[in-house]
């Protein structure tokens, strides 16, 4: 019977399946950080249980960590407490921790792929919604709640109902200045922030196949922003080339055996999806959001859709979003002054993102009215950027290259956007208060963010680009 990629991986990990009940799904790799693990560890203590398979659990500190002076004690009391508790819990339960000061420390969804921990065909979970990032490798990866973190600690399994499947194809060639972040923001704008609810999404098509692994991670990362359970892309030669030689990737005979299996991981030609959507890459422009959910996005030259054009039941919330952002119906955002630019997060903090920004800003200078933070996704990305001299380019441009962490993606650490200020951000969420109380977030690609940094306003990056 023909199967989708999701079905192949899911079925291979079902420990027990019974009609009318969720499947018992085996989890290959459990990623943890300091925010959603403390209560789970406490639950184990109360029941006198160990972590069943600590070698299949990987920990790092990322959400609460400062991105300046990481060798000094953390100033914020709650952040310091949570990071300290992660250190104590991992030591007690025998879990590998890439904490502050470790050369492998970084955002959990950045270090998994770069270390060769994330592999095709795996099931992977983390107490973090953007775990879908790892699906770029042809893995079933999804976020879980704290009670489920405890469940995986104790059993290495989860009770999970098999999700519906959706295929999203993007075919054709992308225009200049358009990248992976624009693709996913465009898709979400077309199907809404709830359009993928209940589905596991497989991304396919010639435009997706042409993307690098880091760009594919950006696509899968934001699957959750359309309500999906997760997203994945079938592994191919681009995937295999990326994995080979990484720290924990298979080697020798183990590599040959793994590769033979990975090459079977694709949706069969006659596989049936519950839903199929198709988009033309030529229709996608550089994107920017104007509201308070990722579905409120538009091509950068477009005008904000009218409140009256919204469904009756959504008009009130739509108007509330525009009021929060300080925007009007039918307005253009071109030329809108911005205060901050944040380039980072698990969506866009990898070395390719930093290279793209550095290439664009070389021999340019940031506008005087803008504060620019560049936050690498890991210590390895930070070191690579320095090895390539990107830090010097950023310094000359007036950009601040900080240390790894989730940073201004969320108002959970010291890197917050002040109330009322506008931030063009390469992160994944523009919810009210996401980057700080009453902060106003406009999601965009690294290139569009870089253009805003050097002009001090919302700018169509294509004005700077020359056709090849």
From TrEMBL:
Pathway assignment: Amino-acid biosynthesis; L-leucine biosynthesis; L-leucine from 3-methyl-2-oxobutanoate: step 2/4
Gene3D superfamilies hit by this protein: Aconitase, domain 3
Domain of life: Bacteria
One GO molecular-function entry: 4 iron, 4 sulfur cluster binding
Cofactor note: Binds 1 [4Fe-4S] cluster per subunit.
Gene Ontology BP term (one): L-leucine biosynthetic process
EC assignment: 4.2.1.33
CDD domains reported for this sequence: IPMI (cd01583)
InterPro entries linked: 3-IsopropMal_deHydase_lsu, Acnase/IPM_dHydase_lsu_aba_1/3, Acoase/IPM_deHydtase_lsu_aba, Aconitase_4Fe-4S_BS, Aconitase_4Fe-4S_dom, IPM_dehydratase_rel_enz, IPMI_cat
List of residues binding [4Fe-4S] cluster: 346, 406, 409
PROSITE patterns: ACONITASE_1 (PS00450), ACONITASE_2 (PS01244)
Self-association state and partner proteins as the record states: Heterodimer of LeuC and LeuD.
Protein name, UniProt field: 3-isopropylmalate dehydratase large subunit
Organism: Pedobacter yonginense
């Amino acid at each position: 019977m023909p199967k989708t990629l999701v079905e192949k991986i899911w079925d291979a990990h079902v420990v027990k399946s019974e009609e009318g009940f969720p499947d018992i799904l085996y989890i290959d790799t459990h990623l943890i950080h300091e925010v959603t693990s403390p209560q789970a560890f406490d639950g184990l203590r109360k029941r006198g249980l160990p972590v069943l398979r600590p070698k299949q659990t990987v920990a790092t500190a990322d959400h609460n960590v400062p991105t300046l002076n990481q060798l000094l004690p953390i100033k914020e009391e709650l952040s310091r407490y949570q990071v300290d508790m992660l250190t104590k819990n991992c030591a007690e339960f025998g879990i590998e921790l890439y904490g502050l000061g470790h050369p492998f420390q970084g955002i959990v969804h950045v270090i998994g792929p770069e270390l060769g921990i994330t592999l095709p065909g795996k099931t992977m979970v983390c107490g973090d919604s953007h775990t879908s990032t790892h699906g770029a490798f042809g893995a079933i990866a999804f976020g879980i709640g704290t009670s489920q973190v405890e469940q995986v600690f104790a059993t290495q399994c989860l009770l999970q109902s098999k999700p519906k499947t959706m295929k999203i194809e993007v075919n054709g060639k992308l225009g200049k200045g358009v990248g992976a972040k624009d693709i996913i923001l465009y898709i979400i704008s077309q199907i809404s922030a709830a359009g993928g609810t209940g589905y596991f999404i497989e991304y396919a098509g010639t435009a997706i196949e042409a993307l690098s692994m880091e760009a594919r991670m950006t696509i899968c990362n934001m699957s959750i922003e359309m309500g999906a359970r997760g997203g994945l892309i079938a592994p191919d030669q681009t995937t295999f080339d990326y994995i080979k030689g990484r720290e924990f990737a298979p080697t020798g005979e183990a590599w040959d055996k793994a590769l033979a299996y990975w090459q079977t991981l694709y949706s069969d030609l006659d596989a049936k999806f519950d839903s199929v959507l198709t988009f033309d890459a030529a229709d996608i422009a550089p994107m920017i959001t104007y509201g308070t959910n990722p579905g409120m996005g538009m091509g950068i030259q477009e005008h904000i859709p009218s409140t009256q054009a919204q469904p009756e039941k959504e008009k009130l919330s739509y108007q509330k979003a525009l009021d929060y952002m300080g925007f009007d119906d039918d307005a253009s955002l071109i030329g809108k002054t911005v205060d901050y630019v944040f380039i980072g997060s698990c969506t866009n903090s990898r070395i390719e993102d930093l290279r793209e920004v550095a290439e664009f800003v070389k021999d340019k200078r940031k506008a005087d009215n803008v504060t620019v933070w560049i936050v690498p996704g890991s210590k390895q990305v930070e070191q690579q950027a320095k090895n390539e001299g990107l830090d010097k380019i950023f310094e000359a441009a007036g950009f601040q290259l900080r240390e790894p962490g989730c940073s201004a993606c969320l108002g959970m650490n010291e890197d917050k956007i002040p109330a009322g200020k506008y931030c063009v951000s390469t992160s994944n969420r523009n919810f009210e208060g996401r980057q700080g109380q009453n902060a106003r977030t406009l999601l965009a690609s690294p290139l569009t963010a870089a253009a805003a940094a050097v002009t001090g306003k919302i700018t169509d990056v294509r004005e700077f680009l020359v056709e090849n």
